[in-house]
Amino acid sequence: MIVRPVRDSEEDAEVVRAIAAAAFGASDVLEGEDAADEWTPERIARHHSRTRHIARSDRGGCWIVEDEAAGPLGTVLSTRREGLWGLSLFAVVPQAQHKGIGTALLARALDHGRGCLRGIICGSRHPMAARAYRRAGFTLHPTMRMSGTIDPAGLDAPDGAVHGGTPRHRDLMDSVDRRIRGGAHGPDHEELMRHFRLFVVDDLAGSGYCYLGGGKVELLAATSRRLATRLLATALLTVPEGERAQVQDVTAEQEWAVDVGLAAGLELVNAGYVCLRGMRPPSPYIPSGAFL
């Protein structure tokens, strides 16, 4: 059995995806929830691109465990952004669980974050994951997930302008990130803009941004609840009629988001945890499970 870095290659990106698909598919069935979304060519390409991006930017935080006979068994992807460590992916195939593989992978990822004052993980409901993150010193903040088709009649018209974002807004978004979560996303914005639609607000009241793709809010940050509400409502109103919308990893501190989701007709259920170390839940903020 070997532990090796994730390489910036299509081959390794597919290995990481296959491990994640096996691990999370089994987890969904175990918990009695719907199986994960179908692995469409578009989703596979996006997952590969994300893996290669993180492997380039954080070589010391990305690892694969392989066995000569059994093949790939587990993987972890983690990032460092201006003193903020994040766990982007952590997966072990079902047949390799309870054998110390996850412990070894998480230790490698945490070592990548040595010296970081803050840490964030968007964790699942799986009890093994929650136990591991708590043992690593993270505070577990329960989250909610909102999903369903949008009822436009329930949403008030946005109270101000929201613009389409471009790479020129990178500095604005990094500034919002630093203020809200204590560290910029930096190069992650370039990757996010490749795959998601970007909404930006910037006026005398403050600034903020939101990424949306396939009906899912991928990431949102703003300098006030009012602007965050404006961004979320605008993003949801652009979801095509009949298409399923989703807002994940919403903590109790994000009541403004809960209010918007309920007004839009989305169903609210308990989900996993936002796990934090050295910081309180960022607000107003909806994290990205992949880019945090």
From TrEMBL:
Domain N-acetyltransferase: 1-158
PROSITE patterns: GNAT (PS51186)
Superkingdom, taxonomy of origin: Bacteria
CDD domains: NAT_SF
InterPro entries given in the database record: Acyl_CoA_acyltransferase, GNAT_dom
Pfam families: Acetyltransf_7 (PF13508)
Gene3D superfamilies per record: 3.40.630.30
Protein name: GNAT family N-acetyltransferase
